[in-house]
Specification:
With about 525 residues, this protein is α/β, with parallel strands linked by helices. The protein folds into two domains: about 375 residues, no CATH class; about 120 residues, STAS domain (Transcription Regulator spoIIAA, 2-Layer Sandwich), CATH 3.30.750.24. It is elongated, with a radius of gyration of 29 Å.
């Protein structure tokens, strides 16, 4: 029987509720850890996870996807908080600048969705997606290794063996239970069973409580978040400080969220709305700024836990968020008793499910350029962050695509019985192929009349139009006549002296646009 980590099904209310509870348990140490990374109180991270999760679950474009406080954004926040503390002259001033930056970042994300720019996620190639999930799997794995430390020192001896045994037990439960029954999420059972073993057996191991204390916190119990306008001077100096950070936070949040959305789409064989998710992410970060959360974005690890546990609908994310709030308000004592080992075991299974193991099967079957992109994105995700990795991968893929297509411009040449030379152009004509296009023509030795046929070609950009104009000028300077055939209407409008050199065929000429806005203006003015 083949082990299937993600089961593609519609889900149910029971599945959504149970998976939501599972996710909420795993959210606690993640939110706390990222709060420590950013240099803020654990409760700020927990509030951020609660508000991000609830708002995006209700209003987002991808049911079943989980949002919360994330490491990618936490890393960006560190420098902002430090500069804010220095500018405000206090240890809490930086937090206020963070809240202001989150509000501005949220507005940017909101507008990104309103103007329907989320569709650009479709431009991310599959090789970049594979590198993204591989890199993120490695990052999640490396982040969990920090849980094998106490007081900054690696565990050793009995403590290490106990931790490893509990982690292995959790993973074994998650692997075997689905083969027996899928009535209850395996991750939830693993957490409860291992927690029971630790509590009943009085086993000494790291718990959520000791993890928070070792990081400088006191616990997770707190009240409801309160509305507050960030206490900062509203002047140009403040804007200069927070604006660059807001753009970076908005970009990192959107890239990670949209990439996670695409991954969940693929895993569940459904399709979410990128633009709606952008609006929801923006709204959630704005609320975080006013209610004292650290903000965040989509979380690939928690999303996969949710999907793996059967969560498919909005209810799963809502339950996870409300459960997290309930833990903060009423059940902090019990949640603090959960052993870190159980949560590490769950995250290790997430790593196994996240990593694109098919990468090893296609190494010898895909183009070298795609393989290099996968390796590049994976490495940059681990070394730097997701935003840099994805942008670099998209740019490299685009350059490879442009280079390959630049070599595909071809010209079939023949001279008819009337002595007229015909050039039949094949392939796209754009900025990368204009030089090769020009080299196809023997202007000096061509006859007095030449026909250039673009029936099997497409004019892609302004560089292509300029290349056609230069070609026409070369023939005209040599006293020769050139005819251009099968150009689109807007191409003809942009070609110099088109009425003399362009042959119009209303039946066969293609109907596509390379400069639709300019074409409309030309039509109105004619």
């Amino acid at each position: 029987m083949k082990f299937q980590f993600i089961e593609r099904k519609q889900g149910s209310i029971k599945d959504d509720i149970l998976s939501g509870l599972t996710v909420s348990l795993a959210l606690v140490p993640e939110a706390v850890a990222f709060a420590f990374v950013a240099g803020v109180s654990p409760i700020v991270g927990l509030y951020g996870a609660f508000m991000m999760g609830l708002i995006t679950s209700v209003f987002g474009g991808r049911p079943g996807m989980i949002s919360g406080a994330t490491g990618a954004m936490a890393v960006v926040m560190v420098s902002l908080i430090q500069q804010g503390n220095a500018l405000g002259g206090g240890e809490t001033a930086g937090l206020q600048y963070l809240f202001a930056a989150l509000i501005l970042a949220g507005i940017i994300q909101f507008l990104f969705g309103v103007f329907k720019l989320g569709k650009f996620i479709r431009l991310v190639p599959h090789s970049v997606m594979m590198g993204f999930v591989n890199g993120l799997a490695i990052v999640i794995f490396l982040s969990q290794l920090n849980m094998f430390k106490h007081g900054g020192e690696w565990l050793s001896g009995t403590q290490l063996y106990t931790m490893l045994g509990l982690v292995a037990t959790t993973m074994l439960i998650m692997f075997l239970l689905p083969k027996i029954s899928k009535a209850i999420p395996a991750a939830l059972v693993g957490i409860l069973v291992v927690s029971g073993i630790v509590i009943v057996g009085n086993i000494e191991t790291e718990t959520v409580k000791s993890f928070i204390v070792s990081g400088g916190g006191t616990g997770i119990k707190a009240g409801l978040p309160n509305f507050n306008v960030p206490v900062i001077p509203f002047n140009l100096e403040t804007l200069k400080l927070i604006l660059p950070f807001s753009f970076i936070l908005a970009a990192v949040g959107l890239i990670e969220s949209l990439m996670t959305l695409s991954l969940v789409d693929e895993l569940t064989e459904t399709r979410g709305s990128g633009n709606r998710e952008c609006v929801a992410q923006g709204a959630a970060n704005i609320v975080n700024g006013f209610f004292g959360g650290m903000g965040g974005c989509a979380m690939i690890g928690q999303s996969i836990i949710n999907i793996k546990s059967g969560g498919r609908g909005r209810l799963s994310g809502i339950v996870a968020s409300l459960s997290l709030l309930a833990f903060i308000l009423f059940a902090s004592t019990y949640i603090e008793m959960i052993p870190i080992a159980a949560l590490v075991g769950v995250m290790f299974m997430v790593v196994i499910g996240t990593f694109a193991w098919s990468t090893f099967n296609v190494i010898n079957k895909i183009p070298v350029a795609d393989l290099l992109v996968i390796v590049l994105v994976t490495a940059l995700t681990v070394v730097f962050d997701l935003a840099i990795a994805v942008l670099a991968g998209v740019i490299v893929s685009a350059l490879v695509f442009a280079w390959e297509n630049a070599t595909r411009i071809r010209a079939r040449k023949k001279t008819d019985k009337y002595g007229i030379k015909h050039y039949e152009i094949f392939g796209p004509l754009f900025f990368g192929s204009t030089a090769l296009f020009q080299s196809k023509f023997d202007v000096q030795n061509d006859p007095d009349e030449v026909i250039v046929d673009f029936k099997e070609s497409r004019i892609m950009d302004q560089s292509a139009i300029e290349a056609i104009n230069k070609l026409a000028e070369r023939y005209q300077k040599n006293g020769k006549t050139i005819h251009l055939r099968h150009l689109s209407k807007d191409c003809i409008k942009l070609v110099k002296k088109a009425e003399k050199i362009c042959d119009v065929n209303v039946v066969e000429d293609p109907n596509y646009f390379i400069a639709i806005d300019n074409y409309n203006k030309l039509i109105k003015g004619s």
